[in-house]
Design brief:
The protein has 167 residues and is mainly α. It has a domain at 41-59 and 75-157: Four Helix Bundle (Hemerythrin (Met), subunit A). It has helices at 7-13, 42-58, 78-99, 109-130, 133-154, 158-166; strands at residues 3-6, 62-66, 69-72. It has a 3-stranded antiparallel beta sheet. The chain binds heme C (HEC).
């Protein structure tokens, strides 16, 4: 069996440190939801927008050792880093999508997790721009902790399904 030390593996083993969200609380007032198209429900945003982008980030961090030898999972070309940077941008904007009136479940912890998502995405974008493997790995771990924290708070049932999906 190949040895694989990647974010995906750490996530499936539950070994990624949960750092939590420490964003300051902000009391922004929601505006009328009619101004936004919120037709995509939470399941669609998660499985069609956020998860595909996050999976690419997680599978682009770490290394694999198998029969064919040692292999870095990190991008090795400028184009490769540019691609993961663009996926990180989707994560940044997903934080805003979740915070839209009509989507946000409250004006409290939900907003903090949504901001935490964007912040982790920004860190991943910066790491990708700098082609900094260590910072990119850390950003992926922080991202995972935000996903898990919000699921624990708002939909504990999702936790198992999500862990299986990350495998
Ligand atoms: C602000 C809160 C919040 C954040 C942050 C969040 N989620 Fe979710 N997620 C939810 C909620 C709520 C559901 C349940 C949706 C439902 O079933 O109605 C969910 C469901 C899911 C599902 C299951 C979708 C399905 O098919 O039923 C996946 C997969 C998922 N999230 C992935 C992620 C990933 C990956 C991240 C981080 C990159 C993330 N989520 C971050 C709130 C969040």
């Amino acid at each position: 069996m190949p040895i694989k030390i990647s974010l995906s593996l750490l996530i499936s083993l539950g070994l990624v440190l949960l750092t939590g969200c420490s964003s300051p609380e902000e009391d922004s007032v929601s505006t009328a939801s009619s101004a936004y198209n919120t037709e995509l429900d939470m399941t669609e945003i998660m499985s069609l927008v956020l998860e595909p982008a996050s999976d690419i980030l997680w599978s682009s961090g770490g290394w694999v050792l198998d029969a064919s030898g040692y292999e870095e999972l990190y991008p090795t070309t400028d184009d490769g880093w540019a691609y993961v940077r663009s996926q990180a941008a989707i994560v940044v904007e997903s934080g805003n999508m979740l915070a839209l009136p009509g989507r946000a479940e409250d004006n409290d912890a939900w907003m903090i997790y949504s901001q935490g998502l964007s912040e982790a995405g920004v860190l991943a974008m910066e790491a990708a721009a700098a082609q900094d493997q260590e910072a990119f790995f850390q950003a992926g771990a922080q991202l995972y902790s935000v996903c898990t924290a919000c699921h624990q708070a708002y939909n504990p049932d999702i936790l198992n399904r999500f862990d299986e999906a990350a495998d």
